[in-house]
User: Which sequence fits this backbone?
């Protein structure tokens, strides 16, 4: 009988990012509506899928947003963000949502959303 080694490959990569919203109750409620199920522009979701983002969730606490972004295993963050910036309607979307965010209308998604450093992972 031969020896077979099973190598477990990652099924995805995960990135966590943060961004601050303007401290305005109405703007925050409007931002939530823009991101409600089915409200995001289809070109934006399609562009994310095309660069290798497989799933994304955004959470809010006060003015602080927290994003969980799952990607394909060979995802190159810098390259993908450059590609995403050139996708149809991406710069228009970034300008549109910038009115809610503590950022400029010219900023790309990568300039707005700051990568977070994982400092803890529960042992299995």
Assistant:
């Amino acid at each position: 009988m031969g020896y077979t080694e099973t190598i477990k490959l990652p099924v995805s990569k995960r990135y966590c990012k943060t961004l601050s919203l303007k401290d305005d109750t109405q703007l925050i409620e409007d931002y939530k509506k823009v991101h409600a199920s089915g409200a995001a522009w289809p070109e934006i979701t399609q562009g994310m899928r095309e660069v290798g983002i497989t799933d994304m969730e955004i959470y809010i606490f006060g003015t602080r947003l927290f994003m969980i972004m799952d990607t394909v295993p060979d995802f190159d963050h810098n390259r993908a963000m450059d590609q995403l910036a050139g996708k149809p309607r991406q710069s228009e979307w970034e300008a549109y949502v910038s009115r809610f965010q503590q950022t400029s209308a010219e900023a790309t998604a990568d300039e707005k959303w700051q990568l977070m450093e994982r400092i803890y992972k529960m042992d299995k």
The CA atoms of residues 94 and 109 lie 7 Å apart. The domain at 20-115 is CATH 3.30.70 (Alpha-Beta Plaits). Helices lie at 25-34, 42-51, 77-85, 90-97, 109-112.
